[in-house]
Design a protein that fits this description.
The chain has 293 residues and is mostly beta strands. The chain folds into two domains: 1-135 and 171-207 and 262-293, Porin (Beta Barrel); 137-167 and 213-254, no CATH class. 15% of the residues lie in helices and 41% in strands. It has helices at residues 2-13, 41-46, 85-90, 216-220, 224-233, 236-239, and strands at 21-33, 49-61, 64-78, 93-108, 121-134, 137-141, 147-151, 172-185, 190-201, 264-275. Strands 1-2-3-4-5-8-9-10 form an eight-stranded antiparallel beta barrel. It is elongated. 38% of the residues are buried.
Length: 293
Amino acid sequence: MRILVFIAFVLAGLNVQAQNSQIGIGFGGTTYAGDLDAPNVFDKVGLTKGAFQINFSYFLNPNMNLRINALFGGLEGDDARSTKEWQLERNLSFESSLSEYSLAFEYNVFDIFSSRAKRRFTPYVTLGVGLFNFNPQATYLDPDGTSKTVELQPLGTEGQGIVGYAAPYSLTAVAIPFGGGIRYALSENLTISLELNSRYTFTDYIDDVSTLYPNRDDLLSKGDVGVISLYVSNQIDEALGLPQNDISVDRSGGVRGDDTSKDYYFSGMINIAYRLNGGLFSRGSGAMGCPSF
């Protein structure tokens, strides 16, 4: 539903100065940095999830444009990918879907759009603001022997929702996208970009990990839900060679995460954009470009 609303919003904007506009689509991947980080860069790359985006850009002048972007991907973290002993012992993991809606300002270092353009390529930088949705999930071994995947936020794995603990965290948060890339004019109508963007976020719960292990008895007071919460909150049992559903190891009050910094996520994309209504990238003086803005 959200993607349909976004597309409708973009299409509604095409009537405004369409000759200075582009619509694009991108494909690539998303990855995460946070409490369940893999220290080795190759392990981090191994946790990258496939992603795509659609966007609409309006050019203020040949060097500056505004871009509305919708990105859809996934995020994943796994202590088992670490070489650090304390992470291997903690033994937590998560996966999450990701959808992001943002507005960004882009600055193109070189003019490749006007009749005065002398180049077909330009580096560019971007800075914006967006909202994103996430939903961390984890898999555990049920006492009946089956593997089950559960949504973590409703379980309150750090005691959220219990009297004396924090409220449940929101699954929607603000992100600040920043980064850049290289843009190349393939023809009078088409550009291709290679871009890498980071997102500073205002949540520490993309991975469901932030503070301390809750008191075990507090979780168990929630009945069957509390038992499942305890299974996925404290997974040291497997690291110690115990059955995966063994709750005998009590870590109440122990450090589970680091709440002094927020989570990040990143996207790497190849983006292809097409001119609208014949305005961009018309030839002038033998160069790729459009008439002067």
